Automatic annotation (TrEMBL):
Keyword Repeat: no
InterPro entries with a match to the protein in the record: GIR2-like, RWD_dom, UBQ-conjugating_enzyme/RWD
Source superkingdom: Eukaryota
SMART domains per record: RWD
Residues covered by the RWD domain: 8-124
Region feature (Disordered): 64-86, 208-235
Entry protein name: RWD domain-containing protein
Coiled coil, from the record: 128-155
Protein species of origin: Salinomyces thailandicus
Keyword Cytoplasm: no
Signal peptide span: none
Keywords: Coiled coil
Amino acid sequence: MGRDEQKEEREVLDSIFPDEIQDISDTEYRVTVNLDVNNPSEEEEDEPPNPVLILNIKYPEAYPEQAPELDVTQPPNAPKHPHLNLQEDKPRLLEALQPTIEESMGMAMVFTLVSTLKDSAELLISERLQAIQALKDVEAAKAEEEENKKFEGQKVTRETFLAWREGFQQEMAEAEARRVAEIEAEEKKKRGKVEEKKLTGRQLWEQGIASRNVEDEGEGEDGVAEGLQGLKVEG
């Protein structure tokens, strides 16, 4: 009964994985599992090729009433992926298959095992990428915080405000005193110029002519009076 079910499952797997499945014997075969890794934080040219795993399956005589023998490997000379190390990660990947095996006892389970392996490996890589990105975010946040500190002013307290107000008022008083002193100096300068202003030669000449005319007029009047006094009226 078990052997018939094994053959039937194997035929179904041929139609599901036509290019990924390879027979080793009548009861043993391997399925290639291509992982999809999405890492938008890296530049496209720097992205390593997506890793490839191989799920090796060997049917025991009583399968599916008995669990299959499983192993996870990689193709020969597969490029090393920075976020998946099969030598270290194999125990975790095989352990992730155990719940599926226990839930599927008595039924064909290889297709589900392949899907579980793919999901588990992709999740493992995703967790590591997220951890790397989280570390980058923390470092970026620290750098931004340090940069923002350059633009932060002193925190205002009552003491610092009073000290600032006193200094500001003193500065304004000094500025007002300088302004008043400058205005007074300018006014004094203007008054000095008015007082020191000298008459031109023409003005001096004109003022001299006017003085002589006044003197002449005075002398003329006195002479006329004296002449009148000297006259005698004859009868």
